[in-house]
Amino acid sequence: AYLDRIAAEDEVLGAYLHVDAEAALARAGEIDAARAAGEELGPLAGLPVALKDVFVTEGVPTTSGSRILEGWRPPYDATVAARLKDAGTVLLGKTNMDEFAMGSSTENSAYRPARNPWDTDRIPGGSSGGSSAAVAGSLAPWALGTDTGGSIRQPAAVTGLVGHKPTYGSVSRYGLIAFSSSLDQAGPMARTVLDAAVLHEAIGGHDPRDSTSIDAAMPVLTEAARRGAEGDLSGLRVGVVRELGGEGHTDGYEPGVLARVAETVALLESMGAEVREVSCPSFDLALPAYYLIAPSEASSNLARFDGMRFGLRVGDDGTRSVDEVMALTREAGFGPEVKRRIILGTYALSAGYYDAYYGQAQKVRTLISRDFTAAFDDVDVLVSPTTPTVAFPLGARVDDPLAMYAADLCTLPASLAGLPAISVPVGLSEGLPVGFQVMAPALADDRCYRVAAAVE
Ligand code: GLN
């Protein structure tokens, strides 16, 4: 049924970069046969899933949305892909994304933009916009995305889905094509909080192949989602972050978004939560700090795309040096936003500027973490809008990087602090979905699921 939906709708939605219907049907057939033979099956046996094209998948084309990896078939599976395979899922395909996960609209995909199923003239968010378009358009029941500065939560918010960025280090990054290694985190995108929890539990947990993987037990997320759905939040202390759409900080926020968020906060209160306003002054600096740190790490991570090891190679005609081939390959293979980030990052890391830019941004990152720590002395979760606006029209921000970056205002603080944060749909503004963000202390992902399930 999902393959039929893809055949009918994906030309317009642009949700997928790669679909192999034959392979998916063959795999589903194998699982059916195993079931018929009475073999023991994984917990998600036969369930289709879509993976953002940032995850390497054995033998399945993986591009990270870039021309520089066109045609590359990785020789191994990312840990999360392997875990989903072991659980018995059927891979529907690889979803569209902003090139190397840099963007908020999927318009930076080197292949084609993805579109929002609610209004195909609007963006489905990014960078995991193929995943959000696929799930919101019923071209997949659920999908994995990655979130470096908001790329799971923002696309989920603007397409009416649930999207969770796990605690940094709680889901393996092994086989996730790196954008900004200290921020990147994989997570679930689904239609319900419980679905997201099920998918998250299937991919999470310690992985010795990821040196930043946390070796700690995961909270039981499905249990938290079920408990939250009962609608009793007695005793839960909720902090509404002033700097994210509160008084004096409403510039750039749509009134319709703020109204849905205010209603949701009132709903939490009616369920027994104790609500108070919390100030996190350093959050105002999250955007500039992120746009120094993420490009710095990207400039280093993307050095591996040199025309020698992977994918595209340009100008290798026997007359040119390795350096020339490398330069020609990168010139042809990277799109404008990726080049912008590499230049920004290389500059921020360069001798003489390192302390002023990268070093300063790292200090701001520490201040943001301290704001969270102080806030979590008084409250159990922090809440805010997920994005300042509903889905904007395609093309509206492509020529204005700063306007595009502003889509991440609310999601960046949790990213920089490595904390878990979920986006849950809380109604519409002007006919388009609004997302509500719930942030929690490290490894308290269950609180995000509990509160999200309560308001869902
Ligand atoms: N929009 C942000 C950026 O362009 C975040 C992207 C992401 O989370 N991958 O960097």
TrEMBL record:
Q: What does the UniProt keyword field contain?
A: ATP-binding, Ligase, Nucleotide-binding, Protein biosynthesis, Transferase
Among Gene3D superfamilies, the record links this protein to: Amidase signature (AS) domain (3.90.1300.10)
Please give one Gene Ontology molecular function term for this protein. transferase activity
Task: Name the domain of life this protein comes from.
Answer: Bacteria
- List the catalytic residues: 52 (charge relay system), 127 (charge relay system), 151 (acyl-ester intermediate)
Q: Does the keyword Protein biosynthesis apply?
A: yes
- Which reactions appear under catalytic activity for this entry? L-glutamyl-tRNA(Gln) + L-glutamine + ATP + H2O = L-glutaminyl-tRNA(Gln) + L-glutamate + ADP + phosphate + H(+)
Give every Amidase domain span: 1-448
> What are its E.C. numbers?
6.3.5.7
Q: What's a GO cellular component annotated to this UniProt protein? A: glutamyl-tRNA(Gln) amidotransferase complex
User: Which of the seven top EC classes does this enzyme belong to?
Assistant: ligase
Q: Which InterPro entries match?
A: Amidase, Amidase_CS, Amidase_dom, AS_sf, GatA
- An example Gene Ontology biological process: translation
* Family matches, as PANTHER family: GLUTAMYL-TRNA(GLN) AMIDOTRANSFERASE SUBUNIT A, TRANSAMIDASE
The entry sums up its family as follows: Belongs to the amidase family. GatA subfamily.
Q: Which HAMAP family match?
A: GatA
- Record function comment: Allows the formation of correctly charged Gln-tRNA(Gln) through the transamidation of misacylated Glu-tRNA(Gln) in organisms which lack glutaminyl-tRNA synthetase. The reaction takes place in the presence of glutamine and ATP through an activated gamma-phospho-Glu-tRNA(Gln).
Assembly mode: Heterotrimer of A, B and C subunits.
Q: What is this protein called?
A: Glutamyl-tRNA(Gln) amidotransferase subunit A
Gene name as annotated: gatA
